[in-house]
Amino acid sequence: MSNIVNHPLLSVALKSVRPTQISVGMAEVTAKRESWRNMRKKDQKELLATHWFPAILGPKGEAYIIDHHHLGLALLQEGVSHVWVLVQRNFSWLDIDVFWHAMEFYHWAYPYNEQGRRTDYSMIPAKLAGLRDDPYRSLAARVRLAGGYAKDAAPYAEFLWADFYRPRIKLKGDEPFGGKVIRKALLLAHEHEAAYLPGWSGNIE
User: Fold this and answer.
1) 183: which residues sit within 8 A by CB, 6+ positions away?
2) Which end of the chain is more exposed for a tag (fewer CB within 10 A), N or C?
3) What is the CA angle 118-122-126, rounded to 5?
4) Distance CA 48, CA 53 (A)
5) Phi then psi for 83, rounded to 5 degrees?
């Protein structure tokens, strides 16, 4: 069966979209919800019309998105019903086990849980609403925005940074991303220990 996509742009019910990772940074989801609420209705419609979700068609023809999980969950929580997905490949004819192996081979799936531990593919939730919170993923995003490292095209770059911070910084309380935490994270980002990470910008001294 051909994997050529005849109609690559599809309108899909957001509640039926399948994720390809286990966790997100819920603090970033909250920020995207706030940004959405602050938009005019016209701008919201324009965003939905132009911000396509890249996806792979999997078994049973379901759309598995391979990016923008934070935005997708934020829109779902804000009551958005449909989004546009841009289909990259059609793998709908594959057995589910072969499908997931292929997805990971192409770096389109990330079967690691919110503690950074490798899990079975079955642990990837069937719906966006099932995504779990990894606060270190939020920390990694905030460090990048603060200039700690450069944006990198490497797949799941911010998850690698999250795993770097996991044993080095303790996040606790209702406000885990205070100034002291960010300052420590920025210093760590420039140390040689972090040189293997995507976007590392070297020692600031």
Assistant:
1) none
2) C
3) 120
4) 10
5) -135, 165
Pick the CATH number of 9-133 from 3.40.50.800, 3.90.226.10, 3.30.1330.30, 3.90.1530.10: 3.90.1530.10
pTM: predicted TM-score of the whole model, two decimal places: 0.92
Structural domain boundaries of the chain? Answer: 9-133, 135-194
Residue type, 67: D
Sorting pLDDT into bands at 50, 70 and 90, what band is 21?
very high
- For the cut 80, the answer to whether the pLDDT of residue 6 exceeds it is no
The structure tokens listed for 164 are 């770097």
Could you tell me if 21 and 69 are in contact, meaning their C-beta atoms sit under 8 angstroms apart? yes
Please give the single-letter amino acid code of residue 8. Answer: P
DSSP-derived secondary structure letter, 94? S
Alpha-carbon span 179 to 182, nearest angstrom: 5
Structure token digits, residue 114: 């919110």
The 10s digit of each residue's pLDDT in 117-142 is: 999 999 999 999 999 999 999 999 99
CATH architecture of 135-194: Orthogonal Bundle (1.10)
> Which DSSP helix (H) or strand (E) runs through 145?
helix 135-145
d(CA 43, CA 59): 34
Q: How many residues in the chain?
A: 205
